[in-house]
């Protein structure tokens, strides 16, 4: 059977976003998709326009900064030479992990969601914001 592909890319400093990404991959497998899951910086960004569906899971570190393993990927998305339709074939979802006690709450996921839209990609769901302060953690 030709299973639909699902790419899950994470940016994680201390492992939580990676765990969430791996959980999404397991769920995808259960739904008979063909998931691949890796850190954003381990993915060849030049292939992004060939991906039908990508779920991004991005944590926040420092004072609203990107985790170490998504910095290169994020920088490459900011290139001024990218045309506004660079990712027009991409459908995506972004889920952020943060803590609302910080002033720059969930900044990397907010910026990533906005930049993907700027590059012509389509969001299948609104930005999801995970909060350490939530009563369920
Ligand atoms: C040193 C440190 C700095 C953090 N800074 C922020 C921040 O500026 N904004 C925010 O929303 N969350 C912040 N957080 C919360 C983390 O994003 C949150 O705990 C997340 O689940 C961590 O995911 P990770 O384990 O994949 O790195 C910070 C956490 C730590 C430990």
Automatic annotation (TrEMBL):
InterPro entries, per database record: Flavdoxin-like, Flavodoxin/NO_synth, Flavoprotein-like_sf
Q: Which PROSITE patterns match?
A: FLAVODOXIN_LIKE
Q: What are the entry keywords?
A: Flavoprotein
- Pfam name, any one: Flavodoxin_1
Question: Cellular component GO terms, alphabetically?
Answer: cytosol
Q: Which domain of life is it from?
A: Eukaryota
The record, for SUPFAM superfamilies, names: Flavoproteins
GO terms (molecular function) for this protein are: flavin adenine dinucleotide binding; FMN binding; oxidoreductase activity
Record protein name field:
Flavo protein-like protein
Give the species this sequence originates from. Blyttiomyces helicus
């Amino acid at each position: 059977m030709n299973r639909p592909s699902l790419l899950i890319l994470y940016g994680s400093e201390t492992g939580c976003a990676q765990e969430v990404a791996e959980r999404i991959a397991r769920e995808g497998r259960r739904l008979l998709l063909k998931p691949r899951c890796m850190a954003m910086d381990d993915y060849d960004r030049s292939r992004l326009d060939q991906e039908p569906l990508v779920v991004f899971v991005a944590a926040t570190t420092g004072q609203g900064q990107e985790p170490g393993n998504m910095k290169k990927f994020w920088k490459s998305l900011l290139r001024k030479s990218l045309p506004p339709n660079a990712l027009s074939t991409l459908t995506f979802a972004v889920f952020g992990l943060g803590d609302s006690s910080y002033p720059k709450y969930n900044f990397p996921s907010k910026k990533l969601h906005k930049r993907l839209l700027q590059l012509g990609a389509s969001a299948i769901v609104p930005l999801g914001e995970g909060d350490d302060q939530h009563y369920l953690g």
